[in-house]
């Protein structure tokens, strides 16, 4: 029996100090926007719309969804609008899904993979085949307890 089985495994929503939004509800008014993003990211949003913990931010789907003590988590559309208007040319097939101190978490539509890249030159440090792999990796790197699910 491994440690996760002994402990029962935690959900990300149970991490002390984590901030997250209520689940996204997909309906006729937002289905067009939902289809712009990878399905596994939308699965995350349907559990929690955005997440912040210990310097990690996974952008929310809806604007102004996550507000805590005068701080607001940026939405994925808001951040990507600013991301594309930087001096550095960002290809259209790159979607920023989150960030930490020096890094941006992206999804590359051409390669169908998530990456952790440098904020200044987009040099890739790590690649992941799913959003869940990326999410668990960054939580582990920031000292979160052993996580079993969102």
Structure write-up:
There is one protein chain. The chain is 24% helix and 27% strand. The protein contains 5 helices and 11 strands. A 7-stranded antiparallel beta sheet has the order 2-3-4-7-8-9-10, sandwiched between helices. The N terminus is likely disordered.
- Going across the biggest sheet, name each strand in turn: 2-3-4-7-8-9-10
The low-confidence parts are: 1-8
Total DSSP E strands: 11
Write down the overall geometry. globular
Note the run of SSEs as H and E: HEEHHEEEEHEEEEHE
Helix % is 10-25%
**Mean pLDDT metric:** 87
Main pleated-sheet profile: 7 strands, antiparallel
Q: Kindly, what is the distance between the CA atoms of the first and last residues, rounded to a whole number of angstroms?
A: 22 Å
Radius of gyration from CA coordinates: 15 Å
The secondary-structure class comes to alpha+beta
SS field, number of helical segments:
5
Percent of sequence in beta strands: 25-35%
Brief descriptors of the model:
two-stranded parallel ribbon; single chain; globular; seven-stranded antiparallel sheet; disordered N terminus
